[in-house]
Fold:
Amino acid sequence: QVQLVESGGGLVQAGGSLKLSCAASGHMESLHVVGWFRQAPGKERELIAGIPWTSDITYYHESVKGRFIISRDTAENMVYLQMNNLEPEDTAVYYCAAQVHTVGRYNTWGQGAQVTVSS
Structure:
């Protein structure tokens, strides 16, 4: 089992920045990929960034490319999402997620962190 605990959400003005953190613990040898999802009110949860635990290949949703940066620290078992130039459309609950044991499906989730961007 792997557990994920997020921190760092909050309220920010448009154009501002926030950094989300996700602490991973448990059977880290079974963790393959980590990512960040978000779910805005009335919308489906969407994957916005992902990175394998042991390589630097990254994925970004088109809507966040050039503004968000995903990173991880394997020594500290941390995953980060640096969010820059935030827009009101980025308002959502953000979830840290992981592919554990099985590659190709996110099956482990954090509790979610609210990010609100005011115009």
About this structure: The chain has a mean pLDDT of 97. The first strand starts at residue 2 and ends at 7. DSSP finds no helices and eleven strands in the chain. The two ends are 40 Å apart (CA to CA).
